[in-house]
Amino acid sequence: MNYQFIILFLFFGLTSISAQKKNKTIENDSLQAEAIDPLRPAKAAFYSAILPGLGQIYNQKYWKLPLVYGAIGASAYFYLDSQKNYNIYRDEYKNRLAGNKSDSDYLGNLSDSQLLSAQKQFQRNRDLSALFMVGFYVLNIIDANIDAALSQFNVSEKLALKPVLTNNDLVLKNDFGIALNYSF
Questions:
Q1: What separation in angstroms does the CA of 23 have from each of 15, 46, 116?
Q2: Taking 80 as the threshold, does the pLDDT of residue 24 lie above it?
């Protein structure tokens, strides 16, 4: 039992133990409060709503710009491509109903049901691309807002976490336990 107590005592840090209390005088407070702007998250969200990526620039997170424009740009590309293909198959189907001959050999070999199926597929892809484009736009606004709010938290290096040994004044002996103190 004695060895266990000694090992635990050594393990948890040999904190400085003294019989007398020391008077501490604080000459200058080393922590300086930064001005917190409560409108910073709203400004960042507003800027991102006006132009995607502008809120990330306001937050000085420049590495997010390619992600924002890549996501919205890819969705816009797939939207336009699906719309173009939808129009091709729709026009071919309309020409068949009007009794005109197809200009393309590939489209001329497709049946009416295949043309309708392709139209539905490209229409679905177009709608999903539009939904993704709007989703990435909203996600851009939310990201700028949250990033601006989180950037104002104090994450100083002076925040510490250390274990201490507690004294029990009732029975005049040390109680071994774990206490975690934040000292800043």
A1: 18, 52, 87
A2: no
* Inter-CA distances, 137 with 45, 67, 79, 95, 127, Å: 11, 11, 15, 38, 15
pTM metric for this prediction: 0.65
Closest of 56, 69, 66, 62 to residue 143, by C-alpha: 56
Encoding tokens for residue 124? 């679905």
- Tokens representing 141 are 């606004």
Residue 65 Cα distances to 54, 69, 75, 145, 181, angstroms: 8, 6, 15, 15, 40
